[in-house]
Amino acid sequence: MNKILKLSALAVAGVAFAGMASTAQAVDLNVVSWGGAYTASQMNAYHKPYMKMNSGVKINSLDYSGGLAEMRAQTESGNVTWDLVDVVLSDAITGCDEGMFRPIDVDKEMAKAPDGTPASKDFLKGTLLSECFVPQIIYSTVFAYRSDAWGGKKPSTMADVFDTAKFPGKRTLQKKPVNNLEWALLADGVPLDKIYDVLDTDAGKDRAFAKLATIKKDVIWWTEGAVPPQLLADGEAVFGTGYNGRWFSAIAEEKQPFAMLWDGQVLDIDGWAVPAKGKNVDAVMKFVKFATDTQRLADQAKYISYGPARMSSGPMVSKHATLGIEMGPHMPTKYASQGFLTNFAWWADNGDEMTERFNAWLLK
Amino acid sequence: MADDATMNGVVLAADGLPLKASLNKAMRKSRLRALLLVAPLFIFVLFSFLIPIFDMTMRSVDNWHVSGLMPETTKALENWDGKALPEEPVFAALILDLKAGAISREIGKVGTRLNYEKSGLRSMITSSARKSKKVKEGPYKPIVLKMHKRWKELETWTVIKRNTSKYTIGYYLNAVDMKYDNKTNDIVMQPEERQIYGTLFLRTFAISLAITLICVVLAYPISYLLATLPVRYSNLLMIFVLLPFWTSLLVRTTAWIAMLQSQGVLNDLFVFFGLVDDANRLQLIHNLTGTIIAMTHILLPFMVLPLYSVMKTIPPSYMRAALSLGANPVTAYVRVYMPLTLSGIGAGSILVFILSIGYYITPALVGGTDGTLISNQIAYHMQSSLNWGLAGALGALLLFSVLALYLIYNKIVGIDNMRLG
């Protein structure tokens, strides 16, 4: 009996030792992202080439549904299992302020452009809004409509979205105040660059809610990004807001009779954040440097219609890998002048209050 | 009659020890064995249920942020009277705290906490912490006042001072649509445009009650059929009840969307038979109607099963006896059969009601605006806004109200009368 015990103890020790020895060379990285077509584009453009070049690194791709709840839970419990998280900019700012993410010096730690431009100058202006964030793609939340809904008439401005007499039918909007309040003001005649000045006043807030109230009975509210294309496809709604990549797959891949309304599109930035208490920080920083270089960001645009966050990647964007469509016209960055960037600082301060007011308004 | 086994009136066992002690010993062994049997379940419940509930409830009163991350300011504000802006020592302490917080990168937590009570304080804290790194020497008061306009407002300091205490009822106030007035520190109602949780609590109870009643009405005849039909029919019927029960919740909810949406199966049928006009299709989903229909369907088995198992135990001879004693069928059914099923109705109702109070996925998918429940707000504060204190307070209120209902039920009906089978 004792002999067996000793033997098995030896065996366990041996396995443990072998495991330790192998981790010295090999490393498993848990990379968390949004799943679906988006994660697939990252695997094709970043993960697979990187694993081919570095045989010791194994990248496990995990899915999450956004938000910082899991990240905060991991940080508070001290057991951080994620090595890299794909986050929207607003979450990066919050997570950075709460100390969940590690600050990154992009010039020192990220790749230069091929012509030697330092990273901080190569990333698009206004994308480096958090010191814990490496930008990856520009996407937009944008309206699309059923092109067969009103015969020959086509909407062209945000005011048309709010005009239920001229363009009757249901609209499907995301169930949160962010963007909707801005759009309401835009439709009410506020110019793009004045939206947040107006929204910062009490009268401006009332004005936004009042304008939103004019279409309230025609709105179906969505919470999951997959819902709006479905509602339009089923004919349940004629207008919908959604992420431009999802509209692209509905239009280009599924051949749905939808058209984009780029007016008033809200540009947003998505990128990487490194958990401050992660276990493989050095290894993961090497991967982020690789995954956000000029070539890799341009490669990703072959698989999904989100614009690369580097200026130097822009000219390298080419055709879709399987559909053979020229991707340039489907990039939100092409229509940047018609849209605006969410004012994250304003929402960081007013988000709690506005969300409560929005939810109370919905109940009325 | 003196016996060997008794000594001074104490009964002894065969080995000479007092019988009581050796009995205790034997019992202890079996008690221990019983304890070991339930230990896995007990540990599971402890770690997956009791500790998390306790933790979330503690979070709903915990207020460590200011006192923990701004200890110097907390100390300096101890004797502040709240009538005018504080003096230089407070500002010197504030700079110390801001610098430390900027280095530890945790000062954002203070900003988040204070922003719950006054919008705008988040950016005041985070931007001032960034600027504080460059501050070298005093006097600090003018430097801080220049960092952000809100430092000049008395309200800001009232909010900070109030939150230097380690515990707060602020989250509970928020959960019942009240708040501190930041000028006077009095407790007042939220402005009307921000009142939401009271309405949601009431609506959650009303919807749950409606669903429970509909379930009783629908389940009663089904259960009666199940219990009285010959086995070969009742088994088939039972499968119809259980099949949806075994199907994934998401699948069932999505199926209801396909059935009820305005271009869906039901509306198509209505239009086909000319019941409604094609232009005015009924809105049956993404609203209260959708929530009630989908949730009733999902929760129906929880009513059918206890009712069925109670009805199964009622001997048919009772009804025959009542009839032969001269009662007409209706009287016999109402006065003899129905009272016997009360315990099943009680068990089913309490199951359905409590389950629907905490329901979350189905209302989130089909509820639209007027069909969402309090649990959807709790989920929002857990996942999106990260206001775990408020989520904890809302959850605790929900828990306590369910416990209160349970006690009332116990008082009126008696929990011993509840039968699940």
Overall description:
- The complex is a heterodimer of chains A (364) and B (421).
- By secondary structure, chain A is α/β, with parallel strands linked by helices.
- Chain A folds into two domains: 178 residues, Periplasmic binding protein-like II (D-Maltodextrin-Binding Protein, domain 2); 154 residues, D-Maltodextrin-Binding Protein, domain 2 (3-Layer(aba) Sandwich).
- Chain A is 42% helix and 18% strand.
- Chain A contains 15 helices and ten strands.
- In chain A, strands 1, 2, 3, 4, 5, 6, 7, 8, 9 and 10 form a ten-stranded mixed sheet that branches.
- In chain A, strand 1, helix 2 and strand 2 form a beta-alpha-beta unit.
- Chain B is mostly helical.
- Chain B folds into three domains: 54 residues, no CATH class; 123 residues, no CATH class; 221 residues, Orthogonal Bundle (MetI-like fold), CATH 1.10.3720.10.
- Chain B is built from 19 helices and four strands.
- In chain B, the strands form two sheets. Chain B has a two-stranded antiparallel ribbon with strand order 1-2. In chain B, strands 3-4 form a two-stranded antiparallel sheet.
- In chain B, a hairpin with a 2-residue loop joins strand 1 and strand 2.
- The longest helix of chain B is centred in the first third of the chain and has 41 residues.
- Chain B is flat.
- The mean pLDDT of chain B is 89.
- The interface between A and B is large, with 34 and 37 residues.
